[in-house]
Specification:
The structure holds 2 protein chains of 2 kinds. By secondary structure, chain A is α+β, with helices and mostly antiparallel strands. Chain A has 7 helices and 8 strands; from the N terminus they run E-H-E-E-H-E-E-H-E-E-H-E-H-H-H. In chain A, 21% of the residues lie in helices and 20% in strands. Chain B folds into 4 domains: 52 residues, N-terminal domain of TfIIb, CATH 2.20.25; 245 residues, Rossmann fold; 198 residues, Dimethylsulfoxide Reductase, domain 2 (3-Layer(aba) Sandwich); 139 residues, Barwin-like endoglucanases (Beta Barrel). In chain B, strand 6, helix 3 and strand 7 form a beta-alpha-beta unit. Classes of the chains: A alpha+beta, B alpha/beta.
Chain lengths: 177, 714
């Protein structure tokens, strides 16, 4: 089973610390962080009654993987990853994702044979990569001041008690409403 | 890489941070295990330090003294000798010609620290000879200070931030912790997880309302009516603690008589609340073995604010929720050191340690220590009175230290007009600001991170900040600048470090005597009162139910409800309420120069509007709109928001283009003189040509940035 970052709405206060941590962990270029180089892969959504970060679920039966015509989205190391060098920027994955977790961003690019490049910019698909390049794990989890984000992995899911316990827990204020 | 312990320079939560420093440059920040934050930080703590690297995103750091030799002229760079001579000789001339009370000064509730505020007020009182010194507590929690000093004896939180999670009921009144103090919001969440009941009184469906047991969406401007109705229910349903009232309180009969008519049915029309909901709230609050009231600007930024604070204090008193752990009253201070600036006497009516200026014995003690014949006995004026006193010709000079009133005070057009009439404006700051642009002389200071100091967090906790990096440029510590000014004006003042200043202060104030630098070392936390060196400090006040009032009893108080000054009309049909942006702080001079924070939220900001109102006025979500009041007109972006109530709109106050203080009304609480930022009648209009509007915002923003950059780098 793929691991994923789960967010608990009851604990989220909408402070967006995770958004910045995510953007800082994923600079799109070597330039300093700035409007052109600030692409968080999770977005704190505020609905009428719910506030929660929305990000990739790392689906085991991932629609984006199936949809990608360039085979640029793959399963690896219990995650779903976008191979940026293969991405065409065609947005098929954006249409396929049921969570809205896939985003198309423009990054600076040098003209290269075989790439769709214009104005030295290139469109690529981006989503939560679980900070796979980061030894400490997902940056968003580590900064959340209310511990609203946590990693759900094979080990946690394999523990029947942890998985099923919530079914008999007292409903939270949010659920009661 | 070394780690340097500091305290976050933004809100009053008092979070301890480890700054990561390499080669005299900060490269990161991590949460340190401070008493209030327990290792956690919010976005401002993690990403709010790179302004120290002079990013020049918004405005450049001030790196040299600047003088404007003629009104309307250009700034020119000056040496410190020239700048001090220029400022001090003019200040001296004004003092001689018009008297000491023609000079107004500010303390700074921001990154500068307690020691420099002590020196600033000493400069005002001993050197200038006036009590005309104030800080931005005036525009935020001054009503809490005024109100609680009368009812309980101390103007601060009665209990600690950490105790919030162990209280069994939290009454949140006009306080959006998630945006103002994320690290306090965390405690509210933890309390909820431990089973506490949460009651939220707020017109908006704020984040805390999501986890609340009861949400009372009262009409904007009905606070006093609701607090009176709460008291009415507690008394009429016999929910209050009779024995506690008999033993420890006074004024019950008058209190009971005043709230008698404020039944939940009577107040329903004023508050818009179902009477049953009001009753349920008080049954829940009174039933809890321990209960805490938290409030913020939703209580204090009204024309009737001190009365409401006293009313909330009375609710805690009659339910016995004072004088023990995990209960109490919590005005959670907004700016990181607004509690400290008040503690240090940067207020027109109190000396350091809250001795009243009317107290002859205290005046004599301070005069002796400071080597002056006397200290003025009359209260000085508050910063919100300044424009009127300039208008009357009574204030001629304004020495503004680490504040930006031309961004943060109400009715900016009026304030700008009055500023033009001043003979002398001295600004002492770290960044070029809108206020600094009007100065005759600018004295550049070291920033938080570049000097040592003590801050006071919202729950009276003294903590030390260590110096992380050396300042770049020809800048000086704030206390040194004031010392140079004092010396130039004929009062020799010299200190070699902040500890020397701190030791002088604690030698003069019984509340702080035991708070030594040693006790505050590293992660040390000392909450006043701390009367002796072997005293550990005081996490919660009023032990043994002894209150610090003249009688030793808690005073009960209620007042008749008064409506806000401005009424909505056909022309201005919406009530504007000014609020906070979680990623920005105060006038934005610091956070606006932090890359991540500035990228997350930039001009022209938003006006939060209910979709029903937006539809009525033909406004599209995310479109640029005009918002205007009887005083001004600004452009901002519409944010459709189901969580705000129809009939009201909400804007945050740190934007230059979407500057909501161009719209706010200059109406103040009669006692605390705090502005009614929470209610100004406005209208919102669609702009047909959106591409013009987008370009207008870009051009105007760019013009402002360019002119300020040019001025700073003169």
């Amino acid at each position: 089973m793929n691991r994923f970052v789960n967010a608990v709405p009851d604990k989220c206060i909408g402070c967006r610390t995770c958004e910045i941590a995510c953007a800082m962990a994923h600079p799109c270029s070597d330039e300093e962080i700035g409007p052109q180089n600030f692409q968080p892969r999770l977005i704190v959504e505020r609905g009428g009654k719910i506030t929660v970060p929305v990000l990739c679920r790392q689906c085991d039966d991932a629609a984006c993987v199936k949809a990608c015509p360039a085979n640029a989205i793959i399963f690896t190391d219990d995650t779903v990853q976008v191979l940026q060098e293969k991405c065409l920027g065609c947005k098929t994955c954006v249409a396929a994702c049921p969570y809205g977790a896939m985003n198309i961003v423009q990054v600076p690019a040098e003209p290269m044979p075989g790439n769709f490049v214009s104005h030295r910019m290139r469109a690529i698909a981006q989503k939560c990569d679980l900070c796979i390049h980061r030894a400490e794990g997902p940056a968003c989890i580590s900064v959340c001041p209310t511990k609203a984000l946590h990693l759900v992995d094979r080990k946690l899911m394999a523990s029947p008690r942890k998985r099923t316990e919530p079914a008999v827990q007292e409903p939270t204020a949010e659920m009661k409403r | 890489m070394k780690k340097v312990i500091t305290v976050c320079p933004y809100c009053g939560s008092g979070c301890k941070i480890n700054l990561l420093v390499e080669n005299n440059k900060i490269v990161g920040a991590e949460g340190a295990n401070g008493v209030t934050n327990e290792g956690e930080l919010c976005l401002k703590g993690y990403y709010g330090w790179d302004f120290l690297n002079d990013t020049k995103l918004l405005t450049p750091r001030l790196k040299q003294p600047l003088i404007r030799r003629q009104k309307g002229g250009e700034f020119e760079a000056a040496t410190w000798d020239e700048a001090i001579e220029f400022a001090s000789s003019r200040l001296k001339a004004i003092k001689e010609k018009y008297g000491p009370d023609s000079i107004m000064l500010t303390g700074s509730s921001r990154g500068t620290g307690n020691e420099s505020n002590y020196i600033a007020q000493k400069f005002a009182r001993a050197v200038i000879g006036t009590n005309n010194i104030d800080c931005c507590a005036r525009v935020c929690h001054a009503p809490s200070v005024s109100g609680l000093q009368v009812t309980l004896g101390n103007g601060a939180m009665s209990n600690s931030i950490g105790e919030i999670e162990d209280t069994q009921c939290i009454l949140v009144f006009g306080y959006n912790a998630a945006d103002s103090h994320p690290i306090v919001a965390r405690r509210i969440l933890k309390a909820r997880e431990k089973g506490a009941k949460i009651i939220v009184c707020d017109p908006r469906y704020i984040e805390t309302a999501r986890i609340a047991d009861l949400h009372l969406p009262l009409k904007n401007g009905s606070n006093m009516a609701l607090v009176n109705a709460f008291a009415n229910v507690l008394i009429n349903e016999g929910l209050f603690k009779q024995e506690f009232v008999a033993n420890y309180a006074e004024g019950f009969d008058e209190y009971k008589a005043m709230v008698a008519k404020y039944t939940p049915e009577y107040t329903a029309e004023i508050t818009g609340l179902d009477p049953e909901l009001v009753r349920q709230a008080m049954r829940m609050y009174a039933a809890a073995p321990t209960a805490t009231i938290l409030w913020g600007m939703g209580v204090t930024q009204w024309g009737q604010a001190v009365d409401v604070v006293k009313g909330l204090s009375s609710l805690a008193t009659i339910t016995g929720n004072l004088g023990r752990p995990n209960v109490g009253v919590g005005p959670v201070r907004g700016q990181n050191n607004v509690q400290g600036a008040c503690d240090m006497g940067a207020l027109p009516n109190t000396l350091p340690g809250y001795y009243k200026v009317s107290d002859a014995e205290a005046r004599a003690k301070f005069a002796k220590a400071w080597g002056v014949a006397s200290i003025p006995a009359e209260n000085g004026i508050g910063i919100t009175e300044v424009p009127h006193k300039i208008h009357e010709g009574k204030i001629k000079a304004y020495y503004i230290f680490g504040e930006d009133p031309l961004q943060t005070d109400p009715d900016l057009a009026m304030l700008r007009d009055e500023f033009e009439k001043l003979d002398l404006i001295i600004v002492q700051d770290i960044f070029m600001t809108k206020t600094a642009m009007t100065a005759d002389v600018i004295l550049p200071a070291t920033s938080w991170g570049e000097h040592e100091n003590v801050f006071t967090s919202a729950d009276r906790g003294f903590q030390r900040c260590y110096k992380a990096v050396n300042a770049k440029g020809d800048v000086k510590d704030d206390w040194e600048i004031h010392s140079l000014m004092a010396t130039a004006m004929g009062y020799p003042m010299k200190y070699s470090n902040t500890q020397e200043i701190w030791d002088e202060l604690r030698g003069l104030c019984d509340l702080y005597t035991g708070a030594t630098y040693e006790k505050m070392a590293d992660l040390g936390y000392v909450q006043w009162p701390c009367p002796t060196e072997d005293h550990p400090g005081t996490p919660w006040l009023y032990e043994g139910h002894k209150f610090d009032t003249d009688s030793g009893r808690a005073l009960l108080f209620a007042a008749e409800w008064r409506a806000p000054l401005e009424q909505v009309s056909e022309d201005y049909p919406l009530g504007l309420c000014t609020v906070r942006e979680v990623g920005h702080y105060s006038c934005r001079s610091m956070t606006g120069n932090c890359t991540a924070l500035q990228t997350l939220a930039d001009e022209p900001g938003f006006v939060q509007i209910h979709p029903d109102d937006a539809l009525k006025y033909g406004i599209k979500d995310q479109s640029l709109v005009w918002v205007s009041s009887r005083r001004g007109k600004v452009i901002t972006r519409a944010n459709f928001n189901d969580r705000v109530n129809a009939g009201a709109v909400y804007m945050t106050y740190q934007w230059w283009i979407g500057a909501c203080n161009e719209l706010t009304v200059d109406h103040v609480d009669p006692i605390s003189k705090t502005p009614e930022y929470k209610f100004s009648a406005v209208k919102v209009e669609a702009i047909a040509d959106q591409s013009w509007a987008e370009s207008h915002v870009r051009v105007e923003y760019s013009k402002l940035k360019t002119s300020m950059r040019k001025a700073a780098l003169a």
